[in-house]
Amino acid sequence: MTDTSTPQSAKTWSARFSEPVSDLVKRYTASVGFDQRMALQDIRGSLAHARMLASCSIISREDLADIERGMATIRDEIERGVFAWNLDDEDVHLNIEKRLTALVGDAGKRLHTGRSRNDQVATDIRLWLRDAIDGILGLIGDFQRNLLDLAERHADTAMPGFTHLQVAQPVTFGHHLMAYYEMTRRDAERFVDVRRRANRLPLGSAALAGTSYPIDRQFVARELGFDGLCANSLDAVSDRDFAIEFCAASALLMTHLSRLSEELILWMSPRVGFIDLADRFCTGSSIMPQKKNPDVPELVRGKTGRVNGSLMALLTLMKGQPLAYNKDNQEDKEPLFDTADTVTDTLRIYADMITGITVKADAMRGALSQGYATATDLADYLVKKGAPFRDAHEVVARAVRAAEGSGRDLPQFSLAELREFSHLIGEDVFEVLTVEGSLASRNHAGGTAPAQVRSAIALARRDLGANQA
Ligand code: ARG
After folding, report:
1. Are residues 268 and 377 in the same domain?
2. From the alpha carbon of 332, which atom of ligand 1 is closest?
3. Is-above-0.85 flag for pTM?
């Protein structure tokens, strides 16, 4: 089909304007440099819209055929990297529409019937984000599977658990790692939740008030796999809360990975020496030949700031906007894309990094002999023998002070020496003063006993398997 009307001028809305924008304004207002990432989503959305228009007899079957043919060409050009993106056409939507019209004529100009870029862009972002979330959920699963493998190998490996970075009580390394499984499990739930709320169709809202054409929004929602419709046209074109929620979920995930990174960095310091990290995640120093620096975990920690920044950017972007669409919203994309990219790369690298951790069980064990890690166990022992807890606490505090003075750990005292602190102490005290005794005694759901850690891992594997299915 050929173009029969007057030629389209340089700008879509030119007839209304008496002077062109300057190059600077053009560059300032254009988004095509970054929103072309949504090109395939834009085409998908346009095809669904065109099919609906034809099914509702708003455009002809021939127009639809032309649009489908033109869009196939455009998709191919984009995929081959030969599509000529043009700053004059401002954004991904106008670039594609313009090219479509060049390819198929009037049918291309009919595509925008009953639609606005406002509901178009809102639809594109939701489609794009849905795919990004699916990718992230898969990567969280990869990370978790590798984490579970490591935790399982170390379900019995004893290490000090810390509070205030002071030795607190013995825990197993497996238990410690499973804390991060729990954090990322909640992260995954949050992403699922964001996806659920984002998966509603804005199209049909047009610029802000809806459209006078006899459209069928359910048709479009079905075509695009949306769970339902955005119920209010003003809300649909203007709010970006789903993008904010995504960045919030991302900020939390990054915060969790940042905490783990901080631990890896600490554990890898020669002063601690609990782990080693595979060389492929570290770099050397240009001046100090002995150095092996944990760059990857440090960058994860650093990039968390960047994701937090994007969350702040989007919250701030939204807070002053009156209904309905404002151009401010064009600024939603870069923080959103950058967040998705950062989270995706971080998870990808982290899943592999977990497999590159060498655990130095002896060093972990050695650290348990400093810091009186079983002092609480001794207090609990006294309570079980009849002492009130506060008195037991006091007895053990005195014992620890004496141990410190003589440069020993609690299990190194003889029975006779221990009995000087309390006559309630008997031969069986050594069962609780040992690390193994301490670990095994915390044998309840959520506790650090190796048996509990193993069942937590088994449960996690079952959940992960179910999620995959
Ligand atoms: N590029 C725009 C954006 O990202 C598309 C919507 C433009 N709508 C408008 N009325 N100017 O938000």
Report:
1. no
2. 4
3. yes
